Amino acid sequence: MPWVILGRVVCGVPGPDAVGAVDALEQLAAALDLNADPPAEAEDAAAADEPDFTTAPVVLPPRVTILAAGRGAHPDANRPDMYPYIIATSRFCLLAHFAVAPSFGTSFDDNPQNTRLVLLRHFQTAPGHKITATAEQLPDRGPPVLVPGIRNIQSVGLVSTCEPTVIAELQVDRAGDHFTATLVRFQGGRWSRRDMECPLPDENGRPWVPHGAVCVNSHICWFDLSWGMLSCDLQSTEAELFLNYHPLPDGHMLPGATPDIHSRRWITVTRNDNMLRYVEITPAAAGEAAPTVTMWTRWVREDGWYWFTNYSVSFELIWDDDSYARTGLPRGVVPDLAVVSPAVHQIVYFALEQNIFGVNVPMHRVEHMAPYNPVNMPPLPASGRYLVDWTLPEEVAQALGYNALAAYVPGQQMALIVGEQDATDGDQVPNEAVIHLAEDA
Question: Is 419 within 8 Å of 401 (Cβ atoms)?
Fold first, then answer.
């Protein structure tokens, strides 16, 4: 299925308490050549008939698709959030975190204030090669004594492979020499809580630090990128609901999270085979010329879970390839880990010097590259914290002109769409920004 790299930070709508949002929208329009007057668009966004959400013109990787929120998407339209945040994606819905100004949805601190979770549903195409969606604001959780409020947005996951959609936050606390866990779920229109036994081992008093969550079938895996994962099958009966602990691959646990951990490690799910993958950029060891990028897949067999190594490649091999030389990017500079292709696990996207480029890692080859300018936020690493893959709904992809059966064949130049069609209704999305670097096999 066709997919896009989606910016997690949503463009908010300007309001009396959202100082600077107009400038952000102006920059966004200029950067994407929307051929429209930004102040007029801001006025239109406030109109009642505007959609709750609208993308900028949809673009395929390595370019980044940006999402904007209309007033109807905000919990308080008079105090709109400048920077809402996309927590999770699926083909059926997106999960976003909104705050009431002056708070931001893009807050990774514990116990965020004045916040609300919002589901984006009912995707449709719109003129200009755009996608619109409606907002479904989830109800408050109720009295904290019954259902605790949001602890951290990086502890929230989404299961949307079937109905009803399930949203689950795992709140992990240390209690002396052991851990406790509280599972907070939204299902069937209401919130509930369940206190659970936590299988985390005691590691010298270290805390659990949430970095995100992914969904595999009906399982949610919450992860601490310095330690491991906790998983739960949310389709289990109440009596069979329990947590599993999955350590990182041997030798890859850290004493604690580092400031750049999102740019060096990430956990994702490849949608074509529904496999859980862990990718890491490992610093060069003694005697090695360059860092290494490695991918593992989590497998289960009769004797339990284990990590299978898919590939491990030195950046020196990538830098030595002619395709990398054609990018004009410097050798010896380690890029940020951005996104793993959900369709072809050999393709990993990296960011360097305001560019995003896709690499067929086992073949050491750069496939394509495009500029990346995060115009709706201050300069931030193009990591999994701020970018996420989104597999487009089939009917939306087809309406945009993307062939749902198109695929990338390793060994050939990347071709994710058939009949290159990047725009409809006469609005053209510039393709010249994308540099194709691989040669046909």
Answer: yes
Hey, what amino acid is at 435? Answer: I
- Please list the pLDDT of the chain residue by residue as tens digits (441 residues): 799 999 999 997 644 333 333 344 444 444 444 334 444 444 444 445 678 999 999 999 999 999 999 999 998 999 999 999 999 999 899 999 999 999 999 999 999 988 999 999 999 999 999 999 999 999 988 777 689 999 999 999 999 876 679 999 999 999 888 899 999 999 988 999 999 999 999 887 899 999 999 999 889 999 999 999 999 999 888 888 999 999 999 999 999 888 889 999 999 998 778 899 999 999 988 778 899 999 999 988 888 889 999 999 999 999 999 999 999 999 999 999 999 999 999 999 999 999 999 999 999 999 999 999 876 566 677 899 999 999 999 999 999 999 755 544 444 443 332 223 333 333 334 444 566 665 543
For the chain, the domains span: 3-436
